[in-house]
């Protein structure tokens, strides 16, 4: 029983990588960006939704269906570091600022968004 308790505690202490991802079309200059407090999980969720045909962004989903997975890149744009203050748990404002900065940056590169 102690081992189980120890594993639960380790899981609670895990800090998944958080930040912003991009789904970018190789055929045109269109992209979808989103922030997450669990990047690996969000990338897996996004791939699964697109493969299943159930992504919430209809335009991205249609283009994925028409062009195929091989014509898209899904990658992490930037990660957000955890504060040294262990009591902080809400990073939603920092993630939104990050999304705003990346939206502006990509717009200057003439990237269109889904």
Report on this model:
The chain has 114 residues and is α+β, with helices and mostly antiparallel strands. It has a single domain (15-113), classed as GIY-YIG endonuclease (3-Layer(aba) Sandwich), CATH 3.40.1440.10. It is 46% helix and 23% strand. The chain has helices at 2-13, 39-52, 58-67, 92-108, and strands at 18-25, 30-36, 72-80, 112-113. It has a four-stranded mixed sheet, sandwiched between helices.
Topology of helices and strands:
Elements: H1 2-13, E1 18-25, E2 30-36, H2 39-52, H3 58-67, E3 72-80, H4 92-108, E4 112-113
Parallel strand pairs: 2-4
Antiparallel strand pairs: 1-2, 1-3
Short description:
The chain has 114 residues and is α+β, with helices and mostly antiparallel strands.
Key features of this structure:
single chain; 114 residues; alpha+beta; GIY-YIG endonuclease; four-stranded mixed β-sheet; 4 helices; 4 strands
